[in-house]
Amino acid sequence: MSRSLDEFARGKLAPMEEAGLRRYLSVTERTDTIEVMRDGRRFISFSCNDYLNLSQHPALKQAAIEATRKWGVGSGASRLVTGNHPLLPELERRLAAMKGTEDAVVMGSGFLTNSGVIPSLMSSRDLVLADELAHACIMVGSRLTRGAEHRFKHNDLDHLEYLLKAHRGDHPRCLIVTDGVFSMDGDLAPVHELAALAKKHDAWLMTDDAHGIGVVGAGGRGSSFIGGSKAEVPLQMGTLSKAVGGYGGYLCASKPVIDLIKTRCRTLIYSTGLPPGVVAAALKALDVIEGDPEYAARPLKKARRFTRRMGLAEAESPIVPIVLGDTERTMAAQATLADAGYLVIGIRPPTVPDGTARLRLTFTAEHADVDIDALADLIRHKVLAAPETMATGGTAG
Ligand SMILES: *Cc1c(COP(=O)(O)O)cnc(C)c1O
């Protein structure tokens, strides 16, 4: 009976295999801040989103262990039933304070947050305008509204305003949504300008700070806090899965909005609350981030050391792309760097647009300067010096 299903799966995979786009999962052990083990080999990783290396921090491990001893490994139910253990409201208070909002809500992951929050606020009569490079889960959330969706050209305020003028009048409500820090390019959204446009056209602005919290903006408060004054962003979402070191997603907003999300958001209501140990670790992570602004600034400093040495536009975040264009060439570059002991994962379509396959490097607080310099020199001499490929620093700069 299942033969047709297996044939279907093989038939789908074959052309992807052909195009070098089939994906494989590699078992990877992370037991140290920057080193990983794969296939029996040790690498220095430039591909973890653990920007502050907090996933390995002794105080976070200790907090997770203690909370697990006290309350168990799981929360036991949805937060609306019995899964709302005492650490969750405490974490929400801390996140709201950090982001300068009245309230916050924490749920299973960043993906669940975007795919649940957007359709909780927007209906089939409404309009969602998203940056074309916004994360896949923003696109999923937008699609679930069953309303009108348009993508504006990456960070292009003129194109966004053109779309607002063309479509805003046809819909009762409009949401503008973007990554605050772009996950595959490392550049920043013009958050202040987006906030002004949203205000002018009576639209709501939502930013995804998955790669912003902990590492950009004053004290690691995120992309709304870059450049002195705080940008007016009524919907600030993010993840606890990257710089915060653990797992989970959040939305920071006004109290009425958070109350509505707790009542309507299906990915919160129909999904189990985060485990106590995960939440305890996130609370400890916020202690570290807020207690040591110099530490929170380190990943960006490391990325800038790399872009200076490479002669690229200055990094705006801890993410730096080396766009090679061609998929095969990108995977060959990944292998070249692996031979030298560096794990730098190649990113291929459809994660990035066709023709923009790239090495995506992430810099973390604990990376040693000597390794950063050695990697930069290796990329310049062994990857970029090879003929037929013109590399660029991606869309950043
Ligand atoms: C990683 C990521 C997410 C998803 O967060 P998870 O907690 O890993 O589910 C959402 N948005 C962006 C921009 C991301 O990079």
Briefly characterize the structure.
The chain is of the alpha/beta class and 397 residues long. The chain is built from 13 helices and 14 strands. Helix 3 packs parallel to helix 10 (276-291).
The number of distinct helices, counting runs of at least 4 residues, comes to 13
Order of helices and strands: HEEEHHEHEHEHEHEEEHHHHEHEEEH
> Roughly what is the average pLDDT, rounded to an integer?
95
- The CATH topology of the largest domain corresponds to Aspartate Aminotransferase, domain 2
Please mark out the parts with pLDDT under 50 across 5 or more consecutive residues, or reply none.
393-397
Helix content: 40-55%
* Tally of individual domains: 2
Largest sheet: 7 strands, mixed
Instruction: List the strand order in the largest sheet.
Output: 4-10-9-8-7-5-6
Gross geometry: globular
- Structural class estimated from helices and strands: alpha/beta
**Which molecules other than protein and nucleic acid are bound?**
pyridoxal-5'-phosphate
The Cα radius of gyration reads 21 Å
What CATH architecture of the largest domain would you give?
3-Layer(aba) Sandwich
How many β-strand runs?
A: 14
Whole-Å distance between the termini? 54 Å
- Any idea of the CATH class of the largest domain? Alpha Beta
Q: Please state roughly what percent of the residues sit in beta strands, choosing from under 5%, 5-15%, 15-25%, 25-35%, 35-45% or over 45%.
A: 15-25%
Structure overview:
With 397 residues, the protein is of the alpha/beta class. The chain has 13 helices and 14 strands. The strands form 3 sheets. The protein has a 7-stranded mixed β-sheet, sandwiched between helices. The chain has 2 domains: 20-49 and 297-389, Aspartate Aminotransferase, domain 1 (Alpha-Beta Complex), CATH 3.90.1150.10; 56-291, Type I PLP-dependent aspartate aminotransferase-like (Major domain) (Aspartate Aminotransferase, domain 2, 3-Layer(aba) Sandwich). The longest helix has 18 residues, at 293-310. Helices cover 41% and strands 16% of the residues. Residues 393-397 have low confidence and may be disordered. It has helices at residues 3-18, 58-71, 87-99, 110-121, 136-144, 157-167, 191-200, 255-264, 266-269, 276-291, 293-310, 327-339, 369-384, and strands at 28-30, 35-38, 41-45, 103-107, 127-131, 148-152, 174-179, 204-208, 235-239, 249-253, 319-325, 342-343, 346-347, 357-362. Helix 2 packs antiparallel against helix 10, helix 3 (87-99) runs parallel beside helix 10 and helix 4 runs parallel beside helix 5 (136-144).
